[in-house]
Amino acid sequence: MNLTTLFLVFAKFGCISFGGGFVLVPILIAEMVEKRQVISMEVFGNLVSIAQVTPGPIGINSATYIGYLQGGIPGGVIASLGLIFPSLVLGPLAFYSIARWKDSLLVSGMLKGIRPASLALVFFAMFLFMGMSVFTAQIPFHALIDLVKTGSASIPADFRISWGGLGICAAVMLLMWKTKLSSTALILLSAAAGALLCR
Amino acid sequence: MPEISYWKKLWVLFYTFAKIAALVVGGGYAILPVVEETFSKKNNWLTSEELLDMMGLVQTVPGIIACNSAIYVGRRVAGFGGILAAAFGVCLPSVLIILVIAMFFPDLDPKNPWLLGAFRGVRACVTALVTMTAFRMAKKVLKSWFEYVIALIALVLVLLLKVEPVYVILGAMPIGVLYAWYQLGKKALPARDGAEK
Fold first, then answer.
1. Which of A43, A65, A115, A184 is best to mutate for the B interface (most B CBs within 10 A)?
2. Mind listing the pLDDT tens digit for each residue in B59-88?
3. Segments in A102-199 forming alpha helices (H)
4. A8-25 pLDDT, tens per residue?
Protein backbone atom coordinates (compact mmCIF):
# COMPACT_ATOMS: atom_id res chain seq x y z
CA MET A 1 0.00 0.00 0.00
CA ASN A 2 1.44 3.39 -0.93
CA LEU A 3 1.04 6.47 1.27
CA THR A 4 -1.98 7.83 -0.62
CA THR A 5 -3.89 4.53 -0.32
CA LEU A 6 -2.89 4.34 3.34
CA PHE A 7 -4.27 7.82 3.98
CA LEU A 8 -7.52 7.17 2.10
CA VAL A 9 -8.18 3.78 3.71
CA PHE A 10 -7.70 5.15 7.22
CA ALA A 11 -9.77 8.23 6.39
CA LYS A 12 -12.55 5.80 5.40
CA PHE A 13 -12.25 4.12 8.81
CA GLY A 14 -12.42 7.54 10.45
CA CYS A 15 -15.73 8.19 8.69
CA ILE A 16 -17.49 4.98 9.68
CA SER A 17 -16.34 4.15 13.21
CA PHE A 18 -19.02 5.30 15.62
CA GLY A 19 -18.46 4.79 19.34
CA GLY A 20 -14.76 4.16 19.76
CA GLY A 21 -12.01 1.57 19.75
CA PHE A 22 -13.68 -1.81 19.71
CA VAL A 23 -16.00 -0.85 16.84
CA LEU A 24 -12.89 -0.16 14.78
CA VAL A 25 -11.40 -3.63 15.46
CA PRO A 26 -13.64 -5.69 13.11
CA ILE A 27 -13.44 -2.91 10.50
CA LEU A 28 -9.64 -3.10 10.58
CA ILE A 29 -9.69 -6.91 10.47
CA ALA A 30 -12.00 -6.97 7.45
CA GLU A 31 -9.77 -4.59 5.49
CA MET A 32 -6.23 -5.33 6.69
CA VAL A 33 -6.33 -9.05 7.57
CA GLU A 34 -8.93 -10.45 5.19
CA LYS A 35 -9.06 -8.16 2.15
CA ARG A 36 -5.54 -6.75 1.81
CA GLN A 37 -3.74 -9.38 3.88
CA VAL A 38 -1.03 -6.97 5.05
CA ILE A 39 -1.07 -8.36 8.60
CA SER A 40 -1.98 -11.78 10.03
CA MET A 41 -4.81 -12.36 12.50
CA GLU A 42 -2.31 -13.44 15.16
CA VAL A 43 -0.17 -10.30 14.78
CA PHE A 44 -3.30 -8.14 14.71
CA GLY A 45 -4.41 -9.68 18.03
CA ASN A 46 -1.00 -8.91 19.52
CA LEU A 47 -1.20 -5.39 18.14
CA VAL A 48 -4.54 -4.74 19.88
CA SER A 49 -3.05 -6.23 23.07
CA ILE A 50 -0.13 -3.79 22.87
CA ALA A 51 -2.50 -0.93 22.05
CA GLN A 52 -4.33 -1.79 25.26
CA VAL A 53 -1.25 -1.56 27.48
CA THR A 54 0.31 1.49 25.84
CA PRO A 55 -1.32 4.85 26.51
CA GLY A 56 -3.51 6.57 23.94
CA PRO A 57 -6.51 5.62 21.83
CA ILE A 58 -6.57 2.11 20.31
CA GLY A 59 -7.43 3.52 16.89
CA ILE A 60 -4.37 5.78 16.72
CA ASN A 61 -2.12 3.02 18.06
CA SER A 62 -3.25 0.47 15.44
CA ALA A 63 -3.14 3.02 12.62
CA THR A 64 0.43 4.03 13.51
CA TYR A 65 1.61 0.42 13.71
CA ILE A 66 -0.03 -0.79 10.47
CA GLY A 67 1.11 2.42 8.75
CA TYR A 68 4.68 1.83 9.91
CA LEU A 69 4.65 -1.73 8.52
CA GLN A 70 3.50 -0.39 5.14
CA GLY A 71 5.65 2.73 4.81
CA GLY A 72 8.04 3.26 7.70
CA ILE A 73 7.78 6.36 9.87
CA PRO A 74 6.00 8.47 7.20
CA GLY A 75 3.50 5.61 6.82
CA GLY A 76 2.76 5.58 10.55
CA VAL A 77 2.20 9.33 10.62
CA ILE A 78 0.13 9.39 7.41
CA ALA A 79 -2.16 6.55 8.58
CA SER A 80 -2.86 8.31 11.89
CA LEU A 81 -3.50 11.61 10.13
CA GLY A 82 -5.85 9.80 7.76
CA LEU A 83 -7.79 8.36 10.69
CA ILE A 84 -8.33 11.73 12.37
CA PHE A 85 -8.75 13.75 9.16
CA PRO A 86 -12.54 13.19 8.83
CA SER A 87 -13.03 14.15 12.47
CA LEU A 88 -10.98 17.33 11.99
CA VAL A 89 -12.99 18.36 8.96
CA LEU A 90 -16.42 16.94 9.71
CA GLY A 91 -16.23 16.90 13.53
CA PRO A 92 -17.14 20.53 14.20
CA LEU A 93 -19.83 20.38 11.52
CA ALA A 94 -21.21 17.11 12.91
CA PHE A 95 -21.19 18.40 16.51
CA TYR A 96 -23.14 21.42 15.38
CA SER A 97 -25.68 19.62 13.20
CA ILE A 98 -26.29 16.70 15.58
CA ALA A 99 -26.85 19.06 18.52
CA ARG A 100 -29.04 21.29 16.32
CA TRP A 101 -31.09 18.60 14.57
CA LYS A 102 -30.97 15.70 17.04
CA ASP A 103 -34.78 15.66 17.18
CA SER A 104 -35.17 15.72 13.40
CA LEU A 105 -36.32 12.60 11.57
CA LEU A 106 -33.16 12.26 9.46
CA VAL A 107 -30.53 12.64 12.21
CA SER A 108 -32.38 10.74 14.94
CA GLY A 109 -33.27 7.99 12.45
CA MET A 110 -29.69 7.61 11.25
CA LEU A 111 -28.44 7.37 14.83
CA LYS A 112 -31.21 4.85 15.61
CA GLY A 113 -29.87 2.62 12.84
CA ILE A 114 -26.15 3.17 13.48
CA ARG A 115 -26.23 2.36 17.20
CA PRO A 116 -27.44 -1.26 17.02
CA ALA A 117 -25.24 -1.90 13.95
CA SER A 118 -22.17 -0.62 15.85
CA LEU A 119 -23.21 -2.80 18.79
CA ALA A 120 -23.17 -5.82 16.45
CA LEU A 121 -19.60 -4.90 15.46
CA VAL A 122 -18.52 -4.93 19.11
CA PHE A 123 -20.05 -8.42 19.51
CA PHE A 124 -18.25 -9.41 16.31
CA ALA A 125 -14.99 -8.15 17.86
CA MET A 126 -15.80 -10.27 20.92
CA PHE A 127 -16.09 -13.46 18.82
CA LEU A 128 -12.89 -12.61 16.93
CA PHE A 129 -10.98 -12.21 20.19
CA MET A 130 -12.44 -15.44 21.56
CA GLY A 131 -10.91 -17.14 18.53
CA MET A 132 -7.52 -15.71 19.50
CA SER A 133 -7.61 -16.57 23.20
CA VAL A 134 -10.38 -18.82 24.55
CA PHE A 135 -10.16 -21.11 21.51
CA THR A 136 -7.11 -22.21 19.54
CA ALA A 137 -8.56 -21.02 16.21
CA GLN A 138 -11.31 -18.72 14.92
CA ILE A 139 -14.80 -20.02 15.76
CA PRO A 140 -15.92 -21.94 12.61
CA PHE A 141 -19.18 -20.08 11.97
CA HIS A 142 -19.11 -21.23 8.35
CA ALA A 143 -19.84 -24.73 9.69
CA LEU A 144 -23.24 -23.36 10.71
CA ILE A 145 -23.95 -22.32 7.11
CA ASP A 146 -22.83 -25.76 5.86
CA LEU A 147 -25.19 -27.33 8.40
CA VAL A 148 -28.13 -25.31 7.06
CA LYS A 149 -27.19 -25.91 3.39
CA THR A 150 -26.16 -29.56 3.39
CA GLY A 151 -27.31 -30.91 6.73
CA SER A 152 -23.81 -31.85 7.81
CA ALA A 153 -20.82 -29.89 8.97
CA SER A 154 -17.30 -30.63 10.09
CA ILE A 155 -15.42 -28.68 12.71
CA PRO A 156 -11.76 -28.07 11.84
CA ALA A 157 -9.30 -30.23 13.77
CA ASP A 158 -7.28 -27.26 15.02
CA PHE A 159 -10.33 -25.74 16.74
CA ARG A 160 -10.12 -26.60 20.42
CA ILE A 161 -10.69 -24.88 23.73
CA SER A 162 -7.59 -23.24 25.19
CA TRP A 163 -8.10 -23.88 28.89
CA GLY A 164 -5.47 -21.35 29.98
CA GLY A 165 -7.10 -18.62 27.88
CA LEU A 166 -10.59 -19.56 29.05
CA GLY A 167 -9.46 -19.51 32.70
CA ILE A 168 -7.81 -16.08 32.38
CA CYS A 169 -10.80 -14.64 30.53
CA ALA A 170 -13.22 -15.91 33.21
CA ALA A 171 -10.95 -14.72 36.03
CA VAL A 172 -10.71 -11.22 34.52
CA MET A 173 -14.50 -11.00 34.20
CA LEU A 174 -14.86 -12.04 37.83
CA LEU A 175 -12.28 -9.43 38.90
CA MET A 176 -14.02 -6.71 36.85
CA TRP A 177 -17.29 -7.60 38.50
CA LYS A 178 -16.03 -7.91 42.09
CA THR A 179 -13.15 -5.41 42.26
CA LYS A 180 -12.29 -1.96 40.96
CA LEU A 181 -8.95 -2.95 39.39
CA SER A 182 -8.01 -0.75 36.42
CA SER A 183 -7.85 -2.33 32.98
CA THR A 184 -4.07 -1.76 32.94
CA ALA A 185 -3.67 -3.77 36.14
CA LEU A 186 -5.88 -6.54 34.72
CA ILE A 187 -3.85 -6.68 31.51
CA LEU A 188 -0.52 -6.89 33.37
CA LEU A 189 -1.90 -9.65 35.63
CA SER A 190 -3.15 -11.53 32.57
CA ALA A 191 0.22 -11.23 30.85
CA ALA A 192 1.91 -12.79 33.89
CA ALA A 193 -0.74 -15.52 34.16
CA GLY A 194 -0.47 -16.20 30.42
CA ALA A 195 3.32 -16.55 30.54
CA LEU A 196 2.93 -19.15 33.30
CA LEU A 197 -0.19 -21.01 32.08
CA CYS A 198 -0.28 -20.78 28.29
CA ARG A 199 3.13 -22.08 27.27
CA MET B 1 -9.58 35.23 36.04
CA PRO B 2 -6.70 36.94 34.21
CA GLU B 3 -7.08 37.14 30.44
CA ILE B 4 -5.00 34.47 28.71
CA SER B 5 -3.57 35.11 25.25
CA TYR B 6 -4.66 33.04 22.25
CA TRP B 7 -1.30 31.33 21.86
CA LYS B 8 -1.21 30.49 25.56
CA LYS B 9 -4.64 28.88 25.19
CA LEU B 10 -3.41 26.80 22.25
CA TRP B 11 -0.42 25.67 24.29
CA VAL B 12 -2.63 24.65 27.27
CA LEU B 13 -4.90 22.70 24.90
CA PHE B 14 -1.99 20.94 23.21
CA TYR B 15 -0.18 20.23 26.48
CA THR B 16 -3.24 18.99 28.37
CA PHE B 17 -4.41 16.64 25.63
CA ALA B 18 -0.88 15.34 25.08
CA LYS B 19 -0.66 14.68 28.82
CA ILE B 20 -4.01 12.88 28.75
CA ALA B 21 -2.98 10.71 25.81
CA ALA B 22 0.43 9.95 27.31
CA LEU B 23 -0.80 8.99 30.76
CA VAL B 24 -4.28 7.58 30.37
CA VAL B 25 -4.22 3.95 29.30
CA GLY B 26 -7.27 2.45 27.63
CA GLY B 27 -8.63 5.61 26.02
CA GLY B 28 -12.25 6.61 25.61
CA TYR B 29 -14.10 7.48 28.76
CA ALA B 30 -11.03 7.43 31.01
CA ILE B 31 -10.06 10.90 29.77
CA LEU B 32 -13.20 12.68 30.98
CA PRO B 33 -12.14 13.30 34.61
CA VAL B 34 -8.89 14.94 33.43
CA VAL B 35 -10.75 17.10 30.90
CA GLU B 36 -13.13 18.21 33.65
CA GLU B 37 -10.27 18.98 36.05
CA THR B 38 -8.32 21.16 33.61
CA PHE B 39 -10.93 22.89 31.50
CA SER B 40 -13.88 23.14 33.82
CA LYS B 41 -12.50 23.46 37.35
CA LYS B 42 -9.11 25.11 36.83
CA ASN B 43 -9.76 27.37 33.84
CA ASN B 44 -13.55 27.80 33.64
CA TRP B 45 -13.49 27.34 29.87
CA LEU B 46 -16.31 24.81 29.83
CA THR B 47 -19.47 24.59 31.93
CA SER B 48 -20.45 21.22 33.38
CA GLU B 49 -23.48 21.20 31.05
CA GLU B 50 -21.14 21.54 28.08
CA LEU B 51 -19.11 18.62 29.43
CA LEU B 52 -22.23 16.46 29.68
CA ASP B 53 -23.22 17.43 26.13
CA MET B 54 -19.73 16.49 25.02
CA MET B 55 -19.94 13.03 26.58
CA GLY B 56 -23.05 12.26 24.56
CA LEU B 57 -21.93 13.90 21.33
CA VAL B 58 -18.45 12.37 21.05
CA GLN B 59 -20.07 8.94 20.82
CA THR B 60 -22.55 9.82 18.10
CA VAL B 61 -20.03 11.54 15.80
CA PRO B 62 -17.77 9.18 13.80
CA GLY B 63 -14.12 8.88 14.77
CA ILE B 64 -12.07 8.20 17.86
CA ILE B 65 -13.70 9.21 21.14
CA ALA B 66 -10.58 10.81 22.65
CA CYS B 67 -9.91 12.73 19.45
CA ASN B 68 -13.52 13.88 19.17
CA SER B 69 -13.41 15.15 22.75
CA ALA B 70 -10.22 17.08 21.93
CA ILE B 71 -11.91 18.61 18.88
CA TYR B 72 -14.99 19.57 20.88
CA VAL B 73 -13.01 21.22 23.70
CA GLY B 74 -10.52 22.80 21.28
CA ARG B 75 -13.27 24.47 19.26
CA ARG B 76 -15.00 25.80 22.36
CA VAL B 77 -11.81 27.29 23.76
CA ALA B 78 -9.97 28.63 20.70
CA GLY B 79 -11.83 27.95 17.45
CA PHE B 80 -10.11 26.23 14.53
CA GLY B 81 -6.61 26.73 15.96
CA GLY B 82 -7.82 25.10 19.15
CA ILE B 83 -9.12 22.09 17.21
CA LEU B 84 -5.71 21.54 15.61
CA ALA B 85 -3.76 22.07 18.86
CA ALA B 86 -5.93 19.68 20.88
CA ALA B 87 -6.17 17.01 18.16
CA PHE B 88 -2.43 16.93 17.53
CA GLY B 89 -1.85 16.87 21.27
CA VAL B 90 -4.05 13.78 21.60
CA CYS B 91 -2.30 11.94 18.74
CA LEU B 92 1.36 12.83 19.23
CA PRO B 93 2.25 10.65 22.28
CA SER B 94 0.55 7.53 20.88
CA VAL B 95 2.16 7.95 17.48
CA LEU B 96 5.63 8.40 19.02
CA ILE B 97 5.27 5.48 21.46
CA ILE B 98 3.96 3.08 18.81
CA LEU B 99 6.59 4.15 16.25
CA VAL B 100 9.32 3.31 18.77
CA ILE B 101 7.70 -0.07 19.54
CA ALA B 102 7.25 -0.80 15.82
CA MET B 103 10.90 0.05 15.11
CA PHE B 104 12.11 -2.47 17.67
CA PHE B 105 9.45 -5.16 17.11
CA PRO B 106 8.48 -4.95 13.42
CA ASP B 107 6.72 -8.31 13.60
CA LEU B 108 4.64 -8.80 16.71
CA ASP B 109 5.09 -12.53 16.29
CA PRO B 110 7.48 -13.62 19.03
CA LYS B 111 9.10 -17.07 19.07
CA ASN B 112 9.84 -17.02 22.79
CA PRO B 113 7.30 -19.32 24.51
CA TRP B 114 7.04 -17.09 27.61
CA LEU B 115 6.26 -14.06 25.46
CA LEU B 116 3.79 -16.08 23.36
CA GLY B 117 2.05 -17.14 26.57
CA ALA B 118 1.98 -13.56 27.86
CA PHE B 119 0.38 -12.39 24.60
CA ARG B 120 -2.24 -15.15 24.81
CA GLY B 121 -2.95 -14.05 28.39
CA VAL B 122 -3.41 -10.41 27.34
CA ARG B 123 -5.66 -11.45 24.44
CA ALA B 124 -7.78 -13.42 26.93
CA CYS B 125 -7.98 -10.28 29.06
CA VAL B 126 -8.96 -8.18 26.02
CA THR B 127 -11.66 -10.78 25.26
CA ALA B 128 -13.07 -10.18 28.75
CA LEU B 129 -12.88 -6.38 28.30
CA VAL B 130 -14.63 -6.51 24.90
CA THR B 131 -17.30 -8.86 26.28
CA MET B 132 -18.03 -6.53 29.19
CA THR B 133 -18.11 -3.49 26.84
CA ALA B 134 -20.42 -5.36 24.46
CA PHE B 135 -22.95 -6.21 27.18
CA ARG B 136 -22.75 -2.75 28.76
CA MET B 137 -23.42 -1.20 25.33
CA ALA B 138 -26.23 -3.71 24.69
CA LYS B 139 -27.99 -2.59 27.86
CA LYS B 140 -27.90 1.02 26.66
CA VAL B 141 -28.67 0.45 22.98
CA LEU B 142 -31.27 -2.35 22.93
CA LYS B 143 -34.43 -0.47 23.85
CA SER B 144 -37.10 -1.99 21.61
CA TRP B 145 -37.63 -4.80 19.10
CA PHE B 146 -36.19 -2.58 16.37
CA GLU B 147 -32.70 -2.40 17.94
CA TYR B 148 -32.71 -6.17 18.59
CA VAL B 149 -33.63 -6.92 14.96
CA ILE B 150 -31.04 -4.53 13.48
CA ALA B 151 -28.27 -5.74 15.80
CA LEU B 152 -29.09 -9.39 15.05
CA ILE B 153 -29.23 -8.87 11.27
CA ALA B 154 -25.97 -6.87 11.38
CA LEU B 155 -24.30 -9.62 13.40
CA VAL B 156 -25.42 -12.35 10.97
CA LEU B 157 -24.20 -10.25 8.03
CA VAL B 158 -20.69 -9.65 9.38
CA LEU B 159 -20.25 -12.97 11.18
CA LEU B 160 -21.81 -15.57 8.86
CA LEU B 161 -22.06 -13.88 5.48
CA LYS B 162 -18.72 -11.99 5.75
CA VAL B 163 -20.22 -8.69 4.64
CA GLU B 164 -17.78 -5.80 5.15
CA PRO B 165 -18.60 -3.77 8.28
CA VAL B 166 -18.60 -0.55 6.20
CA TYR B 167 -21.67 -1.63 4.25
CA VAL B 168 -23.47 -2.79 7.39
CA ILE B 169 -23.04 0.64 9.03
CA LEU B 170 -24.00 2.49 5.83
CA GLY B 171 -27.02 0.22 5.30
CA ALA B 172 -28.26 0.71 8.86
CA MET B 173 -28.63 4.47 8.38
CA PRO B 174 -31.53 4.55 5.86
CA ILE B 175 -33.28 1.71 7.73
CA GLY B 176 -33.10 3.79 10.91
CA VAL B 177 -34.57 6.78 9.08
CA LEU B 178 -37.40 4.64 7.64
CA TYR B 179 -38.17 3.29 11.11
CA ALA B 180 -38.19 6.80 12.63
CA TRP B 181 -40.56 7.85 9.84
CA TYR B 182 -42.82 4.84 10.49
CA GLN B 183 -42.86 5.62 14.21
CA LEU B 184 -43.78 9.23 13.51
CA GLY B 185 -46.71 8.01 11.38
CA LYS B 186 -47.85 5.69 14.16
CA LYS B 187 -47.74 8.52 16.68
CA ALA B 188 -49.76 10.73 14.36
CA LEU B 189 -52.47 8.07 13.80
CA PRO B 190 -54.30 8.15 17.16
CA ALA B 191 -54.60 11.91 16.84
CA ARG B 192 -56.21 11.50 13.40
CA ASP B 193 -58.62 8.84 14.80
CA GLY B 194 -59.54 11.29 17.53
CA ALA B 195 -60.27 13.97 14.98
CA GLU B 196 -62.64 11.70 13.00
CA LYS B 197 -64.67 10.89 16.05
1. A115
2. 777 888 788 888 988 988 888 899 999 999
3. 105-133, 142-150, 163-178, 183-197
4. 999 998 888 876 667 888
